[in-house]
Specification:
Length: about 200
């Protein structure tokens, strides 16, 4: 009975956030691609793929982590522990952001970048123009294979090292909050259990 129906505002927020991130990332990537050579474009593409895999690991870790060890750290005022408790407690939202929003946006970006690299290759080596369809197919297959393989490797790591991963993410968010003065986590909740969260607290 812990399931909560999401309101239309939640889905509107997800849509607008995804759209905004995609536009910003897409424009930024296009501007960089126009000013870089093929080697730099390859490096940028690999970075995007790594970001995709990294956030997938975070999303998996959020759903596999437990609150209990982080409550103990929060009680001892360990930096980032309170933020970690908040992230684990809101695992569904974290997973949605990491796996769906960031994952889908970076996935779309990597596909677009692969197509841009193919066009740049054809422009640099016109004699390969007759083989464009094969080059494009192989490029897309390579990007898909790297992404899927990376996520497959990351899933096991995300599950078995869930608490450690979320602890590090919580520490990063704590530093960001301290530096910017902005709160990304709810400071009013100091710990304890909520309805529907007992599953996480019981898993040890």
């Amino acid at each position: 009975m812990g399931y909560k129906r999401k309101s239309w505002k939640h889905f509107l927020f997800i849509f607008l956030l995804s759209f905004g991130l995609a536009v910003i990332a897409g424009l930024g990537t296009e501007m960089l691609m126009e000013r870089t050579n093929i080697l730099s474009a390859w490096i940028l593409l690999l970075i995007i793929i790594i970001i995709n895999i990294g956030f997938d690991v975070i999303g998996i870790a959020a759903t596999a982590a437990t609150e209990k060890p982080h409550h103990a750290k929060a009680a001892n005022r360990v930096s980032g522990a309170r933020q970690t408790v908040y992230l684990v407690r809101n695992a569904d939202t974290v997973a949605n952001f990491a796996n769906d929003i960031v994952g889908d946006v970076t996935g779309a970006l990597s596909g677009g970048m692969a197509a841009s690299i193919v066009l740049e290759i054809i422009k640099t080596y016109p004699e390969l123009g007759s083989h464009e369809i094969w080059i494009n197919t192989l490029m897309i297959a390579l990007v898909a294979s790297l992404t899927v393989t990376g996520k497959a490797l990351g899933k096991s790591f995300g599950i078995h090292e869930a608490d450690e991963i979320m602890g590090r993410v919580g520490s990063v968010i704590a530093r960001i909050e301290e530096t910017t003065g902005w709160s990304f986590t709810d400071k009013k909740r100091k710990g304890g259990k909520r309805s529907g969260d007992s599953r996480k607290n019981e898993r040890t």
